[in-house]
Amino acid sequence: MIFPRNNIARQGEAEARFALLIGLKDLAPREPERAMKRNSKAKGNARNRTGFTLVEVCLAMSIMVFATTAMIGLLSSGLNRLGGSIDANQGQNIAQQVLLEARQMPFPQLAAMGTYKRYFTYEGDMFDSSSAQTVYTANVTVGAPTAMPGGGATSSTLATVTVEIRKTPAGQDAPANPAIAHYVSMSSCRDLTLLVTGS
Known about the structure:
about 200 residues, alpha+beta, about 20% strand
């Protein structure tokens, strides 16, 4: 015979009451008791699992230390490369300024310069003498007369301008400071009458 669900539940409750009345505890359903035990165990496990174990904490810390060490290594390498690229760009700008100055000089004056220095701040401002603001030094060497490119004859209307840029903080030009950039350019005398007059 098939009973509706509500009737089955009522029948189970009635049997349980009857079993309690006559003292047969074994016949009473133990589901509520088991459910209470399960709930109390679950609550106990939840209380015990609210924190991390020492092994988990140590493992997490070792992973964090390893990752941080790797990041610091990458950061220092990146900063070194950034500094090197800034110096290279600044060296190129300085060389352009020095070579432009050489091209704008009257040729006899340039040919007589020989070797000279120009000093630069971090922003690229040029000075004739060193100061506390000096960051870069350009060593300029002028070779005149010079041979024609390709091994030709020596020409009195041609000068070779060599520029070597070094990083020299506060103007301390030590030979140990490596050269940032090295440029060579040729400058020619545009006005040949200057060579004749020598002015």
